[in-house]
UniProtKB/TrEMBL annotation:
Keywords: Cell membrane, Membrane, Phosphotransferase system, Sugar transport, Transmembrane, Transmembrane helix, Transport
Protein known as: Ascorbate-specific PTS system EIIC component
Subcellular location: Cell membrane
Pfam families in the record: EIIC-GAT (PF03611)
Source organism of this protein record: Enterobacter lignolyticus (strain SCF1)
GO annotation terms (biological process): phosphoenolpyruvate-dependent sugar phosphotransferase system
Length: 421
């Protein structure tokens, strides 16, 4: 069991090491000189760590915003966070979660080899979250550990191949090539955002080409636009929470300066993410060719959602705001009809909403970015409410999965399972 935990949580679950290992294998297969192998491997890992460091900084800033926002508006309910629910699932079903992830990755490689879905899912933590979702769903149906592990691992392997394929037509529009895929289990929403964008806007009117009059032209610089936009959100939350709440969170900083500092910290995190992604892509794509040519012809690496941020940085902030508004709408509707209230958590809403906006922008410009991310915000608000009863049935409460792919797969598996003997 300790060896299994080491493989799952210390290798496969640590995405920088997993991606670095893939780069190492690819470079060795291509018989690159040792200095190229070492350089490519270390730069791949460092690129991912830079990106992860930026993401961690963003999570901290968004977490502080969430605290003030919840206090200011008195929000209480279910917080949709895959990390939280996975942690709860591991306390009850650790062996099943671990084995589904390990065996599922093997199925992913096999399916990529023998089917038309040539995608290798390299976002390790998301495979871990899906393993937890599948475990909880199958256990809620009353299946044994053996059936849960076998069924769950096959489903994970299929999901890792098929879901990236759903988003790939729009990934090609975003990147201008077919070299990388989306390795983030919200592809149903991202594809929907891309489709909605094509119906409401024009890709020529990109968020990155907005023709703003006069002094508004400063918003063409995404650092300025992110700083100002997030500052407005932060000050609304701070003023709603009040001086005492902000002072308690600020750790000695003036309560009116704290929101500005946190907003600028968030902007810095986005810049770090984009820098890390560029370094990562410059190394992992050439290295991946070795594996593709040798073992899985035409295979593509499916990478975490921030890989698309550099293609439309301005869209990311529009996506966060628009999707968050969509989440607030869902929260209000659920409260009015007496259903479980899903609190829009800033962290997933930023990463998911921002990515959805990049997809919408690729097919519909700024209108597509706003409309696509707004609909995505609605989807990731409704989804956790739909699947929450399954979580409660096995004793997991207070949190749920916001990812559309998890919700869709979980509901299908659960209700098909209910119809079987």
């Amino acid at each position: 069991m300790e060896l299994l935990r080491f493989i799952v949580f210390d290798i496969l679950g640590v995405t920088p090491l997993l991606v670095g290992f893939i780069a190492l294998i690819g470079l060795l297969i291509q018989r690159k000189p040792i200095e190229k192998v070492l350089s490519g491997t270390f730069k791949t890992i460092v690129g991912f760590l830079v990106f992860a460091g930026g993401a961690g900084l963003a999570v901290t800033s968004l977490g502080n915003f969430q605290t003030l926002f919840s206090q200011g508006f008195g929000l209480k309910g279910v917080m949709p966070l895959a990390e939280a629910l996975t942690g709860l699932a591991q306390t009850k079903f650790a062996m099943c979660v671990s084995l589904i992830m390990v065996i599922g990755f093997g199925w992913n490689l096999l399916f990529a080899r023998i089917t038309p879905f040539k995608y290798i899912f390299l976002t390790g933590q998301h495979n871990l979250y899906l393993s937890a979702l599948l475990t909880v769903t199958l256990k809620a149906l009353g299946y044994s550990d053996l059936v849960t592990i076998i069924t769950g691992s096959i489903l994970l392997g299929l999901a890792a191949c098929i879901y990236p394929a759903i988003a790939q037509p729009w990934m090609r529009k975003i990147t201008g090539n077919d070299e990388i895929a989306m390795g983030h289990y919200v592809t149903l929403a991202y594809a929907a955002s891309g489709w909605i964008g094509s119906k409401v806007g024009d890709p020529k009117q990109s968020t990155e080409k907005l023709n703003l009059p006069g002094w508004l032209g400063i918003f063409k610089d995404y650092i300025v636009s992110v700083s100002i936009s997030v500052s407005i959100f932060y000050y609304i939350a701070a003023l709603a929470a009040g001086k005492n709440a902000v002072t308690a969170a600020a750790g000695g900083m003036h309560w009116l300066v704290y929101p500005l500092f946190q907003s600028l910290t968030f902007t810095a995190s986005l810049y770090i993410i984009i820098t890390g992604v560029r370094l990562l892509l410059s190394e992992i794509v050439p290295a991946f060719l070795g594996i593709s040519e040798k073992f899985i012809p035409n295979a593509k690496p499916a990478l975490d959602c921030p890989v698309v941020f550099p293609y439309a940085p301005t869209a990311t902030v529009l996506g966060f705001i628009s999707s968050f508004v969509g989440g607030l709408v869902v929260m209000g509707v659920l409260a009015m009809i007496g259903q479980t209230v899903i609190i829009p958590v800033a962290i997933p809403y930023f990463f998911i909403g921002a990515t959805a906006a990049v997809f919408g922008n690729a097919s519909g410009g700024w209108k597509g970015a706003i409309a696509g991310s707004f609909i995505t915000g609605i989807l990731i608000g409704i989804g956790p409410a739909l699947i929450y009863p399954i979580m409660e049935s096995v004793g997991l409460s207070g949190t749920s999965f916001p990812e559309t792919d998890f919700v869709a797969l979980g509901l299908v598996v659960y209700y098909i399972g209910k119809m079987l003997p």
